[in-house]
Structure formats: C-alpha cells, structure tokens
Amino acid sequence: MKKMFISLLVVGAILMTGCAGGSIDFQNEINAVERHTIEFATGGGDISEFRKDIEDFNEKIDRVQSDNEKVIKFTQLQRKANEIRLEGFEDMDYDKINESTAYQAEALKLYNEIKDAN
Question: Which of 73, 88, 112, 113 could form a disulfide with 97 if both were Cys (CB 3.0 to 4.6 A apart)?
C-alpha cells in the first residue's frame, strides 16, 4: 500500500507539471487524471468515472492531426500511459501504475516542449 501511495504521489507531481497553453491543449484532461490519481491514493476513486475520462482523453488524442514528430510521439506515449494507468487502477496493480508513471513523465516532457515552442 505504501508503494502504491508513493507511486500515486509521483504521478500527481508529474501531472501538475504538465500545464501550459498553446496549439494542443490537454489541460482539462491532465487535471482530471490528477484528480483521479489523488482520489485513488487517498482510498477513494471511482473506476467507472476514471474509465470514462480516459476514454474521452484518448478520443481527443485521436483527433490530433499533425506531421510534427514530437506531437505524434506525445500522442503515442500519452495513449500508452492512459491505457496502462487504467489497467493499473482497475486491478490495483502497482507495477502497472509505476509503468504508467514512466510513460506519463516522458509524454509530459514532450507536451511541455511542444507548448514552449508555440
């Protein structure tokens, strides 16, 4: 339980750094994932609501049209992070939650680079 809580705090901290404005904007989706992460870390969390928010996030990712390599890589990493995170929370699988954190960190690094360039 302690390992999961630490992982969830790391996810929350990473998500909070993914904030910026620009041509692609996933701020609302990032905020929703952050909120869910905190809820799961504190013993709450609604997997049905989280699943719906992840599905909405992935649908928005699917609508991104770009030839920019960073944007393409961001969307791939973010989708992978979302899918693994959902699986992790569904099963309370700490290894998957940790794995999703690594993908999320890489995705948000690209996201911030894209935002900074615009």
Answer: 88
| Burial of 112 from C-beta contacts in 10 A (0-12 / 13-18 / 19+) | middle
Collect all residues with Cβ–Cβ distance below 8 Å to 63 and sequence separation of at least 6.
Answer: none
CB under 8 Å to 47, separation ≥6 — which residues?
89, 90
What one-letter code names the amino acid at 97? I
Angle at 12 between CA 66 and CA 115, to 5 degrees: 30
User: What is residue 20's predicted lDDT score, i.e. its pLDDT?
Assistant: 37
Our CA angle for 100, 104, 108, nearest 5°, is 180
Q: Distance from first CA to last CA of the chain, Å, rounded?
A: 41
pTM: 0.78
Closest CA to 106 of 92, 24, 22, 114: 114
Residue linked to tokens 């360039």: 117
Which residues in the chain land under pLDDT 50? 13-22
